[in-house]
Amino acid sequence: MISFKREKRILVPTDFSAQADQAVLDALDMVADPSDLSVLHVAPPMSSYPVADPAIVWESITEEARSERIEESFRVHIKDPRAQAVHFAVAFGAPAEEIVDYAEAHEIDMIMMPSHGRSGLRRLLLGSVAERVVRAAHCPVIVLRN
């Protein structure tokens, strides 16, 4: 990985995959200060879950509670002590749109994100979050491939 330090704000979207974990570690190596790194997880909104599911007590689950649990998971999941200083956020909605909106709202200088490397029919059916972010972002986007 590139080993230069920059005075820039970097955003790394995470889905808690191994590729996203590596992107967080790579970004930590690139920033001068870990507080210049933001990590964003985009979760599906509560409205996307089936209302008729009797196994879930909807009234007790809030987006705030979900956000807190997701951040706790991140803080435990990434073992590098520098990760404790990063800004962690959770958004609810469509991943590409939320990533681009977060980057603009927080004046992010660069987005660094993994590509899961889907191709062919899987890419056509699932789309590519990385591709959509590259097309819509106001700042440079580094897409990491395995």
TrEMBL record:
GO terms for molecular function: ATP binding. Gene3D superfamilies: HUPs. It comes from the Bacteria. Keywords: ATP-binding, Nucleotide-binding. Residues 8-145 form the UspA domain. Pfam families: Usp. Belongs to the universal stress protein A family. This is Putative universal stress protein.
